[in-house]
Specification:
Length: 128
């Protein structure tokens, strides 16, 4: 459609399938765990969501090493976990990425994400 822009997906069918798989994985495993961890649960439910989130991030650490860097501060602060302790290679890679201007300028500020999550928690009645 936009001939002067590079396509988002590879022209290689296998590479396109892999990209679609990981997008689906992020949506179903990571984002749903984030919602369950910081927005929709407390107590045992939150503990289960924390475990699922860390397991999902460990898969990303091994397979993709792709960060959701902007969300990590909010997750760690609100549910008292250390993503860095569980996934040190992922965090080290994310920190290296953030040293690149293209990455640091394209991701939202972690504190703004944290404030956004606090507002969502209030809206959903998940306040401590």
């Amino acid at each position: 459609m936009w001939k002067d822009k590079a396509p988002l997906l590879s022209s290689n069918p296998y590479q396109r399938a892999l990209a679609r798989f990981w997008v689906d994985y992020l949506d179903k495993k990571i984002y749903s765990s984030i919602r369950g961890t910081i927005l929709n649960s407390k107590g045992e439910e939150q503990e289960k969501a924390k475990k699922e989130l860390l397991e999902g991030l460990k898969v990303l650490e091994e397979e993709l090493q792709a960060p959701l860097w902007s969300w990590f501060y909010a997750i760690e602060t609100l549910v008292n976990i250390s993503i860095e302790a569980a996934c040190p290679k992922l965090i080290a890679w994310a920190k290296r990425c953030m040293q690149r201007e293209s990455a640091s300028k394209s991701l939202p500020d972690s504190l703004k994400i944290y404030d956004f999550v606090l507002q969502l928690r209030k809206k959903f009645g998940v306040v401590d």
